[in-house]
From TrEMBL:
<feature type="domain" description="Methyltransferase type 11">
    <location>
        <begin position="47"/>
        <end position="120"/>
    </location>
</feature>
<dbReference type="InterPro" id="IPR013216">
    <property type="entry name" value="Methyltransf_11"/>
</dbReference>
<dbReference type="Pfam" id="PF08241">
    <property type="entry name" value="Methyltransf_11"/>
</dbReference>
<protein>
    <submittedName>
        <fullName>Putative methyltransferase</fullName>
    </submittedName>
</protein>
<dbReference type="InterPro" id="IPR029063">
    <property type="entry name" value="SAM-dependent_MTases_sf"/>
</dbReference>
<dbReference type="GO" id="GO:0008757">
    <property type="term" value="F:S-adenosylmethionine-dependent methyltransferase activity"/>
</dbReference>
<dbReference type="InterPro" id="IPR051052">
    <property type="entry name" value="Diverse_substrate_MTase"/>
</dbReference>
<keyword id="KW-0489">Methyltransferase</keyword>
<dbReference type="GO" id="GO:0032259">
    <property type="term" value="P:methylation"/>
</dbReference>
<keyword id="KW-0808">Transferase</keyword>
Length: 254
């Protein structure tokens, strides 16, 4: 296990409230996995699903919110999965693998996957965009300044690029059948306050908030005020289209 983050109850609640669930991306992954599988996919992913997380707060939030009857949760590091060797059909991690001990995780995923099983890793870049009428460019200039102000607080474990982390993991995966996807733009209509709330869940903002709460609040308020002014609206409840740029890769175990 590399790092432990997102463990506060308030942060876990904000994560659930503001992060985007890319259902269309999940459908694409499931379709690709079924195409790759040599046998009918009848294992854990269809009959029994398991969600794992090292954070007790994140698991508590998951359990409290609409659990399908065939899904259960377990607390554990991603590098120490509680499954027998060759027991699992699909291993996936959403916006999380960049925090793992990456080589240990890849070895552990290989251990638990059955032959024909699939590994799918997903995340997105921080440079989300906003669309709103004819002022989209102005909004995105403001967003870029917001992101730039948070960049000095990026955790050094992540390096300069999350895309590179996943690309390096993809390159190190020895499976011959694998697929890299650089960018899938997922759009969601949300109140402007929802966009601000999403940025506030990022680890860089959380680090700033811990070090200097007043400065973190000032940055959020400034971005919110400038965006509202550019949109010519008087309330942060005004809706805007958020464009999240996902990247992901899949690999099928021989």
């Amino acid at each position: 296990m590399a790092l432990r983050l997102f463990e506060g109850n308030d942060h876990a609640a904000a994560y659930l409230q503001y992060r985007v669930s890319p259902h269309e991306l999940i459908c694409m992954i499931m379709t690709t996995w079924r195409q790759w599988a040599r046998n009918d996919p009848v294992g854990s992913v269809l009959h029994q699903g398991f969600g794992t997380d090292v954070s007790r707060a994140q698991l508590k939030m998951a359990v409290a919110n609409s659990i399908p009857p065939n899904v259960s949760y377990r607390q554990c590091p991603a590098e120490e999965l509680p499954f027998a060797s060759g027991e699992v059909d699909l291993v996936t991690a959403m916006t999380a693998a960049h925090w793992f001990d990456r080589q240990k995780f890849l070895l552990e995923a290989d251990r638990v996957l059955r032959p024909g099983g699939c590994l799918a890793l997903l995340s997105y870049s921080m440079d989300m965009e906003l669309e709103y009428g004819d002022v989209s460019n102005a909004l995105n200039d403001i967003c870029k300044e917001f992101y730039a102000a948070l960049l000095p607080f990026r955790n050094p474990y992540l390096g300069s690029s999350s895309v590179k982390i996943y690309s390096d993991m993809f390159d190190s995966c020895p499976y011959p059948d694998k697929e890299w996807n650089e960018c899938l733009r997922v759009k969601r209509i949300t109140p402007l306050s929802g966009y601000i709330g999403m940025v506030e869940t990022f680890s860089s903002y959380q680090i700033l908030q811990q070090k200097d709460p007043a400065e973190a609040e000032r940055l959020s308020n400034e971005a919110r005020t400038r965006l509202m002014s550019a949109m010519k609206v008087s309330s942060p409840d005004a809706e805007v289209t958020v464009v999240v740029k996902y990247f992901y890769w899949l690999a099928c175990k021989p």
